[in-house]
Amino acid sequence: MDCSNGFLKTRSRDVSLKELSRRLAEFAEVRGWDQYHSPRNLLLALVGEVGELSEIFQWKGEVAKGLPNWSCDDKERLEEELSDVLLYLIRLADVCGLDLGQAALTKIVKNAQKYPVSNHTPTSTSNQP
After folding, report:
1. Dihedral class, residue 11 (left if φ above 0, else alpha if ψ from -120 to 50, else beta)
2. pLDDT at 122 over 90
3. In the chain, N or C: fewer CB atoms in 10 Å?
4. Degrees, nearest 5: CA angle 125-104-106
């Protein structure tokens, strides 16, 4: 994001899901939040964050890729809500003992088998999940 609002925004290195998971676990542990991070509670928190994310788009109609007409403040809010969703999803997977990165790669392979390239036509949307 090229917007500047007083915060130093730098392009970061690639961050792994495992690193995020480790940092979230540490964050929760030192604050004594582990007792509240049951799968159910994390899922409900995730759903709440998805609702906040949806609210950003609720009355905007179609939005162009790259968000060219959005203000820096709107983009920053979107970035924060997307991050909240990602972090709760990662924490939920971790608490459930799942490897989210591997699960995502496995799902991509399953989707490739379910929706092979030979069935794809640029004007058809019937083969999209």
Report:
1. beta
2. no
3. C
4. 90
pLDDT category at 13 given cuts 50, 70, 90 is confident
- Output the CA–CA distances (angstroms, integers) from residue 84 to 49, 98, 115, 118, in the order listed: 6, 19, 30, 37
Measure the CA–CA gap between 34 and 29, rounded to whole angstroms: 6
Distance in angstroms (rounded) separating the CA atoms of residues 24 and 20: 6
In a 13 Å sphere around the CA of 53, the CA atoms on its Cβ side amount to 15
Per-residue model confidence (pLDDT) at position 113: 95
3-state secondary structure of 103: helix
Residue with tokens 């790259």: 66
Q: Which residues of 72-103 are buried (b: 16+ CB within 10 A; e: fewer)?
A: eeebbbbeebeebbebbbbbbbbbeeeebeee
What is the average per-residue pLDDT within 20-43?
97
Secondary structure class of 67 (helix, strand, coil): coil
Please enumerate in sequence order all residues whose Cβ is within 8 A of that of 129, keeping only pairs 6 or more positions apart, or say none: 111, 114, 115
